[in-house]
UniProtKB/TrEMBL annotation:
GO terms for molecular function: DNA binding. Keywords: DNA-binding. This is DNA-binding phage protein. The keyword DNA-binding applies.
Amino acid sequence: MALTRNFKETVAARVQSDPAFAQALLDEAITLFVNGEPESAKLILRDLVNATVGFEALADEIHKPAKSLHRMLSKSGNPTMTNASAIFAAIKRALKVEVRAQVVMA
């Protein structure tokens, strides 16, 4: 039997050891969200939360129940803009990064 590693564990380990990878995931989540693909953005955010602050700490930080956060970041979840913004901000703080918007003309 081949040795395998859980995908979420692999992402979490990579986020912890590679700041550029963590930044790229955050950038991708933001890009997907802004470009009308919130389902994919939420799944990336879920992985980032698991790899950084964790749902319990995030719940304490933004004053929302952890169970609600899990639902918000599920594929069918529907977070408000206020909640999505708070989640992005918490991940930014956890990664100690700044995010700047850039418009690219097609």
